Each structure stands twice: as C-alpha cells, then as structure tokens.
Amino acid sequence: xxxxxxxxxxxxxxxxxxxxxxxxxxxxxxxxxxxxxxxxxxxxxxxxxxxxxxxxxxxxxxxxxxxxxxxxxxxxxxxxxxxxxxxxxxxxxxxxxxxxxxxxxxxxxxxxxxxxxxxxxxxxxxxxxxxxxxxxxxxxxxxxxxxxxxxxxxxxxxxxxxxxxxxxxxxxxx
Length: 174
Hints:
With about 170 residues, the protein is of the alpha+beta class. It has helices spanning about 10-15, 30, 60-70, 75, 90-95, 100-110, 130, 135-145, 160-170, and strands at about 35, 40, 50, 110-115, 115-120. A hairpin with a 2-residue loop joins strand 4 (about 110-115) and strand 5 (about 115-120).
C-alpha cells in the first residue's frame, strides 16, 4: 500500500483506526526497505521506510523528514524526537504505532488522560508544512525509532528526486 499525499491526509487518516494497538513492534527487520519507487523506499507491508547506505548517506525523504520534524515538531517533542516534559519521545512511539495510526494522530490530533494528567496533540491536518511532508516525517522518525539513525543532522543525503519536487509543488499549491 503506497500513499502519496495528493489529497489532504485528513481524508486518508479516516481510513485508519486509532486506538487499536499495533500487532507488532517496529524493528530493523520490519523497517527494511524491500522496494523503491521514484526515490522513496517501502517495507514489505508497503509502508514508507528509510534507506541508509554503508557510508551513512540517507535517502532524501529521511533527510527531508529530519528538516521538517526539527522545524515543526521539535517544539513539543524535543529535537530529534527525543521528547520533552510535556510530549512523548516519538522515537519510542514509532516503535508501536503503525503508519496509519501515525497519519491519523498527526492529521486529527489526540487527547490522552493518564494518571490525572491530560496531554493533547493538536491537529496538523491543515498545516501544509506538516501534512505535505507527513511521509518524510514518518520515515525520519522510523529510522530514529529502530536505531539506525543517530541524533543530529544527517551528514550525507541523496539528491531530491523529481517525484519529491513534483509532490511538493502540487501540495504546497505552487
């Protein structure tokens, strides 16, 4: 199942149930890239994933996800998804969230009440700087979650594929 965000992810998010626990935790084997399409990699289930070369070069989408995450999401979730006093460590959350659950939570938001403490993830379904790059952010956090990508800006990256340029132009309305 390959998703490209030609439409607002809010509509896509409705296809995926939230609150249903993932059957398996994500790990290096599950996250392994088995196919690629236009510079984007996918795992055996068809979910977007990362590709890191032996020399540390990351695929474009992992690099873009790093940039987008650290410009939009780090305020609450800490640099590199390391968490904060009021938002979870996303590098841990992605070990148990499916791709669909991730899309739905980011697009629609979520409210949790645990141990008398309320936490709220606001909806980003109308923020183009987030929803146009949801796959990128997911891919980056997935690489962090399974331990294949250290903290900090990736030193080397693949060139931006034409498909990423086309998607960005289409999604951002350019």
